[in-house]
Write a structure and sequence with these properties.
This protein is mostly helical. The chain is built from 3 helices and no strands. The chain has helices at residues 2-35, 49-53, 59-62. The longest helix is centred in the N-terminal third of the chain and has 34 residues, at 2-35. The chain starts with a helix and ends in a 10-residue tail after the last helix.
């Protein structure tokens, strides 16, 4: 009989704890979102799309500004 109630208790915990964890995560996320904005540039360089596409390190743009030695 005790094994039945212990199994029932474990089953209820297995069903309730994921729901509680999801609720707690949503609450923490909303609290942090109120305190801090999520407008953070992880690359630490703010470039436009045009600057990224027209990079001097692209193979198609690499030899445009290349000056050869000994020529005018």
């Amino acid at each position: 009989m005790m094994e039945f109630f212990f199994g029932m208790f474990v089953g209820v915990l297995a069903a309730v704890l994921p729901l509680f964890a999801g609720w707690l995560t949503k609450q923490e996320y909303s609290m942090v979102n109120e305190l801090e904005s999520n407008d953070f540039d992880y690359t630490k360089v703010e470039k436009s799309l045009e600057e990224k596409v027209d990079s001097p390190f692209d193979p198609e743009n690499y030899f445009k500004n290349f000056k050869r030695e000994g020529t005018k």
